[in-house]
Design brief:
The complex is a heterodimer.
Chain A: H1 2-24, H2 28-50, H3 71-102, H4 107-116
Helix pairs in contact in A: 1-2, 2-3
Chain B: H1 2-22, H2 26-46, H3 50-75, H4 87-104, H5 116-119, H6 121-133, H7 139-147, H8 149-180, H9 184-196, H10 205-228, H11 236-254, H12 256-262, H13 265-288, H14 303-342
Helix pairs in contact in B: 1-2, 2-3, 3-11, 3-14, 7-8, 7-14, 8-13, 8-14, 10-11, 11-12, 11-14, 13-14
Classes of the chains: A mainly alpha, B mainly alpha.
Chain lengths: ~120, ~350
């Protein structure tokens, strides 16, 4: 019972840690890092779904009756990883501009400045 | 043994993630995130996803760490102690986590063959028919570039857009300031840039020698991954990232100016578009031959040969755009840094 769902629970723990980081930390870089953790947990979830017991990587081999793991989740996640880093970079570049405009990357301090205005 | 390895790696994963959450220094958090990504790559290998592991190791542990460090060098690495607001987020996170755990009891057992993911028609089709229809041993490549070619085209466009957007966001201020000072200071900037010059410091001797030895092999490996992706793990996405990593390594060790002499920014911008156009061009070519968009069977008299040619060209397009996008993003951050140093901020 425990090992049946162990991987899912790890996914959920990572997911929750990522979610908690995004919500509880006011530093924008820390939020981006939390978002990356969040992303990684979803990747693991997809790949776990594609795994088949006793299977091998989905690359054709010359042996009959070979069981292959499902290639589809691999494709989806492979592209998602590269798109993920591109969008993370976009977020980080916005953080750089925020730092230059407000001279801080702390969400609370930015909100205080906005209130004073 | 495999189970033990998985459990061990996953425990490390959770420890790393908790470390990321609690550490105050953002440099440390970034390095821990890189370690978490690398552990994740190892777990992907155990779960048979070799292509994904490859990408995660190159992107998560490599490029994204460099990006975070580049940002930290611009914004500072200390996380200020903020007002405590832990109760509500903790509550929400725990409720979400609890709900998800409850949901897992309805999930199929990990790795079971009667899992709907494994029994779906799509899966049997990909596994049984793709070797005959596409003739490429690596099923991930055939699904990526052929069956789901349209989807991948969209992904490449997203990467292209992100690369352009980073350049636009990070170059804006620079141009405005140059206009304000009417070009006089920009001339000074370039002069001082030459004077302060990329003279390699003596302290960097070991990285210099090591990277000089390594970089040719990194680039060669990138090409191998690019063109061997049909037969083994690899393909345009991984190759693009590895190729870009080689050039970023060069830039980090020898200085940005040398790297930009090798591949100037205008070339990066050009390549960014060339890759997408090559991908789209293959699609248009198949339409001109009489088939559907990205239906490679029409590229040659023999459908399997057509698939081969189509996949090769499309993967090349992906590789070019990913390389250019990673370099564009890196140049965007690195140039910002140099600019700030020059203007004395």
């Amino acid at each position: 019972m425990f090992f049946d769902h162990y991987s899912y629970w790890i996914v959920i723990i990572l997911f929750v840690i990522g979610l908690y980081t995004v919500m509880s930390r006011s530093n924008l870089i820390k939020k981006m890092i939390g978002l990356s953790l969040f992303q990684i947990s979803v990747f693991l979830f997809y790949i776990t779904m594609g795994k088949i017991e006793g299977g091998t990587a989905p690359i054709l081999v010359d042996a009959p009756d070979t069981v292959y793991s499902n290639p589809l989740p691999h494709v989806l996640i492979l592209t998602a990883i590269v798109v993920g880093v591109a969008t993370t970079a976009l977020g980080l570049s916005l953080v750089v501009r925020i730092k230059e405009t407000y001279d801080t990357i702390d969400e609370d301090e930015i909100r205080d400045m906005e209130d004073v205005k | 043994m495999e189970e033990f390895t998985t459990v061990f790696l996953m425990a490390l994963l959770v420890a790393g993630a908790l470390g990321v959450l609690y550490v105050r220094n953002l440099f440390v958090a970034t390095m821990l995130l890189g370690a978490v990504s690398f552990l994740m790559a190892l777990i992907f290998i155990i779960l048979d996803a070799v292509d994904v592991a490859f990408t995660e190791a190159a992107v998560g542990a490599g490029i994204s760490t460099v990006l975070f460090l580049g940002t930290l060098s611009l914004v500072g690495a200390d996380e200020k102690k903020s007002r405590p607001k832990t109760v509500l987020p903790l509550l929400v996170s725990l409720i979400v986590g609890g709900t998800l755990v409850y949901a897992t009891f309805e999930m199929p057992v990990v790795g079971s063959a009667d899992n709907p993911v494994q029994t779906s028609n799509l899966t049997t089709r990909f596994i049984e028919q793709s070797p005959k229809e596409i003739g490429v041993p690596n099923m991930v490549t055939s699904v990526l570039a052929s069956y789901r070619g349209y989807d991948t085209f969209g992904e490449v466009t997203v990467i292209f857009t992100a690369g352009i957007a980073v350049l636009l966001i990070l170059r804006q201020l620079r141009r405005r300031r140059d206009e304000q000072t009417e070009g006089s200071s920009s001339a000074e900037n370039t002069e001082t840039g030459v004077e302060s010059g990329p003279s390699p410091s003596i302290h960097d001797l070991v990285p210099h020698v090591v990277s000089k030895l390594l970089i040719p092999f990194v680039l060669l490996f990138g090409l191998y991954v690019q063109f061997h992706g049909d037969f083994g793990p690899g393909g345009g996405f991984q190759a693009g990232v590895i190729f870009a990593a080689g050039i970023i390594l060069y830039s980090l060790v020898f200085g940005l100016e040398y790297a930009q002499k090798l591949i100037p920014l205008w070339a990066v911008e050009l390549l960014l578009a060339v890759g997408v156009l090559l991908y789209g061009g293959v699609g248009v070519a198949t339409m001109l031959y009489g088939g559907n968009f990205l239906d490679y069977n029409w590229l040659s008299a023999d459908p399997v040969a057509g698939q081969h040619l189509g996949i090769l060209l499309v993967e090349l397009g992906v590789g070019i755009t990913v390389t250019a996008a990673m370099l564009a993003i890196f140049y965007g951050f690195a140039n910002r840094n140099e600019f700030r140093e020059n203007s004395g901020e």
